[in-house]
Every structure is written in C-alpha cells, then in structure tokens.
Write a structure and sequence with these properties.
Pfam families: FpoO (PF10621). This is F420H2 dehydrogenase subunit FpoO. The chain is α+β, with helices and mostly antiparallel strands and about 120 residues long. Helix content is about 35%, strand content about 35%. Strands 5-6-7 form a three-stranded antiparallel sheet. The two termini are about 25 Å apart. About 30% of the residues are buried.
Length: about 120
C-alpha cells in the first residue's frame, strides 16, 4: 500500500511523478519520486491544461508537492474524510510540478494502454 502525496488516500498503486525539490537539490539534482493517486493526477493534469490555455501568473506561496517558494496554481482535489466520505480541497502546485504531472500522466496513460493490449 502507498499513500497519495496530495490527498493522503492509501491505495495499492500510485502513479510515480518525478518532482524537483529545491530543498534536496544537492542530494537529488534530477528530482525525487512522489506518488499520486489517479484522481489527484487527473485533477493536476486538468489544472495544467487550463493553465496552458490561459496562462496566469498564479499566486506566490509554497508548493504543496515540492515545497518550493514559487508562483502557484490551484488544483481541486478530493480528500478522504471519515465523516463525509470525501471533502473537496484545493492544493496549490507550481508550474514545474504541473509540468512533471503532465509528463507522468502521459507516461501512465501509455503504460495502461500497453498493458491492456497485452491482456487481449
């Protein structure tokens, strides 16, 4: 079992996303692997696509995925809740993390389609 690094849901398989964390730049110059559930991955990809269509400068703050002080863009996710089942929440990700999510999403979709072809 693994936990999604955005919403915290525990699932058997998370989607690996390579994220550059400024705090660990010397130890991991190519980035660190974070795991996202498919719902968070899709929400972040949607936010990335919206940002690409109509770029906004975002707001300044600390990215919820990499921890860098950057310009941030909102991502609407569903966080598990014991009382309600799920709560809508907004996390803020920087452009670099959104680009990493976009790349990981493309690779994940490609991998899923290849595995579907193998089973048929």
């Amino acid at each position: 079992m693994a936990d999604c690094d955005l919403c915290g849901v525990a699932i058997p398989t998370v989607v690996p996303v390579q994220v550059f964390k400024p705090r660990f730049a010397h130890s991991y110059p190519h980035g660190m692997w974070q795991g996202l559930c498919e719902d968070c991955l899709n929400a972040a990809k949607e936010s990335h696509d919206k940002q690409e269509e109509s770029p906004s400068c975002g707001i300044a703050g600390k990215c919820d995925l990499c921890g860098g002080i950057e310009r941030l863009h909102p991502v609407l996710i569903s966080r598990p809740s014991f009382s309600k089942g799920a709560d809508e929440d907004t996390v803020r990700l920087c452009k670099r993390c959104l680009d990493s999510v976009d790349k990981a999403s493309d690779e994940w979709e490609k991998e899923k389609s290849e595995s579907e072809h193998e089973h048929h």
